[in-house]
Write a structure and sequence with these properties.
mainly alpha, 0% strand, single chain, 78% helix, ABC transporter involved in vitamin B12 uptake, BtuC
């Protein structure tokens, strides 16, 4: 019989894996991993905001993640400098600002380890409910926007010519990504959250031939990695989130190695 905290950790992680699969595939197809990393790093400022206002830090992270995502979208439209330069600037500035902000919180010193690397075994029943219900809502929106998102991933200009509202679809996707990052922080932490989204998608990409199959295989890889990672964590007393990510990374390494040695790789958009 599993302990209640293990059951909660398993349900929360599997729920996140289901949500991360389609989002992670689109992140890989559209090369948005660094974008997501920047939004995730800014989450540390949200942690400081939540602690300062004495509220659930998830809400603080969500507010800051949405604000930074909006700022990045705005900078991208201005075309003053390349988006990669803006990402490089905000990525490091946000992390530095977050560390400074948390160090200035009055009271007991803030232990950043749980925020940076997560604590999947500390999730509550409320956290599980938020992940399951919120995840279902995110998946519903992704399913609704599947074709427009896919067309944008294949060819933006052609998608626009076919009537896809690029700005609206992209904005909705970025909002979904920011929400997922905020919720996932408790499980894998700010520094590893994008690995949870990207690594299973990278592992699946060489093995399948269609976008739909890639999403399905990504979900299966993520779910299997969650189960093995939590088992490993419980067995050798290693941190839960990093254990899950290392299992995902091993699977991705094996997949890419197989593709490199003669397996004709699949291609998403």
């Amino acid at each position: 019989m599993l302990e209640p905290f293990l059951v909660r950790a398993l349900i929360a992680s599997l729920g996140l894996a289901a949500v991360a699969a389609p989002l992670g595939c689109f992140v890989v197809w559209q090369r948005l991993a660094y974008f997501g990393e920047t939004v995730a790093q800014a989450g540390l400022i949200g942690v400081a905001l939540g602690l300062a206002l004495q509220m659930d830090v998830t809400w603080g992270v969500l507010v800051v993640a949405l604000a930074v995502a909006g700022l990045l979208l705005w900078f991208g439209r201005q075309r003053l400098v390349g988006l990669d330069s803006i990402l490089g600037l905000l990525h490091h500035a946000a992390l530095a600002a977050g560390v400074i902000a948390t160090s200035m919180i009055k009271g007991a010193p803030v232990d950043l380890t749980g925020f940076l690397f997560g604590d999947v075994f500390a999730v509550t029943a409320t956290d599980v409910a938020v992940i399951v219900i919120g995840g279902a809502a995110v998946l519903a929106v992704v399913a609704w926007l599947w074709q427009p998102l896919l067309r944008l991933a294949v060819h933006e200009e052609l998608a626009a010519a076919e009537g896809v509202d690029r700005e609206t679809v992209r904005t909705v996707f970025i909002v979904l990504l920011a929400v997922t990052i905020a919720v996932a922080m408790k499980i894998v932490g700010i520094l590893l959250v994008m690995a949870f989204l990207v690594v299973p998608a990278v592992a699946a990409r060489p093995l399948v031939g269609t976008p739909e199959r890639m999403v399905l295989l990504t979900a299966l890889i993520a779910a299997a990695s969650v189960i093995v990672g939590l088992w490993l964590s419980a067995t050798v007393d290693s941190p839960g989130g990093p254990s899950i990510v290392i299992v995902m990374s091993i699977v991705a390494g094996l997949s890419l190695s197989w593709a490199a040695f003669g397996r004709p790789g699949a291609r998403g958009p």
